[in-house]
Amino acid sequence: MGPTWLLRMARWARNPPSPGRVKLVLAVVGICLALFAVERWVGWPDALSPERARPPMRVSP
Q1: By three-state DSSP, how is residue 12 classified?
Q2: Lower CB density within 10 Å: C or N end of the chain?
Q3: How far does CA 9 lie from the centroid of its chain?
Q4: End-to-end CA distance of the chain, in Å?
Q5: Mean pLDDT lowest for which of 31-35, 36-40, 49-53?
Q6: Up-side HSE of residue 45: CA atoms within 13 Å toward CB?
Q7: Rounded Cα distance, 16 and 12, in Å
Q8: What is the sign of the dihedral through the CA atoms of 16, 18, 23 and 25?
Q9: Distance (Å, whole) CA 33 – CA 39
């Protein structure tokens, strides 16, 4: 942890974020955790997996 993070924590201690911002951050973290859990237990859908239509073109010297 560098000095930048220490300064940021000191600023947050002096001027804490509004309750609305805290709720927003917690909601975003919750959505990310929910998506991770679904992907982990159910699996990634094949329709969302990128597939190459053809193999990459090789250039011979």
Answers
A1: helix
A2: C
A3: 21
A4: 49
A5: 49-53
A6: 4
A7: 5
A8: negative
A9: 10
Distance, CA of 36 to CA of 33 (rounded, Å): 5
* Res. 32 pLDDT band, cuts 50 70 90: very high
Cα–Cα–Cα angle for 22, 25, 30, nearest 5°? 120
Tokens coding 49? 């997996």
The Cα 60–Cα 50 span in angstroms is: 27
Given a cut of 70, whether residue 42 has pLDDT beyond it is: yes
Domain edges within the chain: 3-41
Length of the chain: 61
Identity at 3, one-letter amino acid code = P
